[in-house]
Structure formats: structure tokens, C-alpha cells
Amino acid sequence: MKKNIIAIIAFVFAALSFEANCASGIYYAIELKREIGSTTWLYVDNGVKEAKSMNADAIFIHMNTYGGSVEFADSIRTKLLNSSIPVYCFIDNNAASAGALIAIACDSIYMRSGSSIGAATVVDNSGKVLPDKYQSYMRSTIRSTAESKGKIIRKIDGVDSLVWRRDPIIAEAMVDASIVAPGNDDSTRVLTLTVDEAIGWGYCEAKVESINSVIESRLLVNSYIISPLFTIK
Predict the structure, then answer these.
(1) Residues 141-167: pLDDT tens digits?
(2) Backbone angles phi, psi at 120, to 5 degrees
(3) Rounded to whole angstroms, how far apart are CA atoms 32 and 34?
């Protein structure tokens, strides 16, 4: 028996929670498709609290942003890192700058074809790169965020090796052009990853074309969901 769909609209964004039959539980989606700022932070904070109050099984961040305030992005990052509910990010085109930091804080990342993640250098309102003390803080923050995802066993040259799940050097290279990612000789530009590159470096679980694809492949196999935005048939 299908349960009622609960839609929540907060501030100028739209958040959606929905329930499915069987053992699928409750899945709460938050759209981040504008500049990251104080309103975004309040919106995400309220959304995570609402998801927790509903005993949601997962939170989806539906992202398409060029970034925004590092201060508020850091607050969102911390909120997601401390979430007791698994957080999945679907990058629907762009996860740049502050958006990249937020995406890396999520437990799993999925990307639509043609999407990108990176270019996290700290700039002012005019786009001018800020002094190194700001870059240093961002490098440390994004590195620690990548490190928080721990290490995994990966076969390298036929040998099982313990490596970072998300290499923190890759995260730092998104901020600082002088940091060269392994296998990349370009030290003149900050790093931005395509979908395939992100998959290769462990910054993306899979290439998908919609949140439905994530749900079908990872969370709700053989379940049925219907909502104003997401429909599985």
C-alpha cells in the first residue's frame, strides 16, 4: 500500500520527502541549485532536522551550483558530516567551489553525464583570488573532508593496498593549482574532474541520469516510488 507523499517547501528552495512501499522507508531530498549562502544554510539545516524527525532512511542532495560563501558551505559540510542519516549527492551538472566541498562531505556521490566537480579556489565577489591564508583554510577543510571518508582496500598492480577512499591530494588540487594530482602534469590550473575522472579517483560512485537511477540501483530495488518529481516505473 502506497503511503502519502509529504512535500516540504522552505524559503525559496524546494525540498521533497517521500515514502515508498515495502521496506523502502522514507527518503528526503534537498535541492541545492542556487548560490550557497545564509538562506541555503538555514534551508539545509531545517531539512536535515526534518529528515531526522521523520526517521528518514537517507537524504538526497540534488546539486547544481557554482558555489558561494565558504563560511556557510562549511556549516553545511559540518551538518552533513555529522548526520546520523546517510547522505547521497546527485550532481546535476555543476558542483563547483563551495558546492564541491559540500558534495565531498556526502557519503556517496553520483553525477549526470557532462557534469563536473572541483574548482574550489576561494575568490572574492569580483572573482579575484584571495590571499593564501584563505586558500590554506580551504585546502585544510576540503582535505579533512575527503579524509573523513576513510580508507579502503584497492588492488594496485595486482596487490591489495590500503588507500584513501577519496584521495585528499585530489581535493587539495581543486583549491590550489600548485598541487598536482597524481598522473596530471598540469600545475597551472586548479583541478576540475569530469564524471569519468571523478569515478576513477573515487569521487563519484557512478554516472547516472537521475536520482531515480540512484534509487533503483542502490537503495530501492523492486520498490515503487511515486512523487511530483521522482517516479519509478
Answers:
(1) 999 999 999 999 988 888 999 999 999
(2) -105, 20
(3) 6
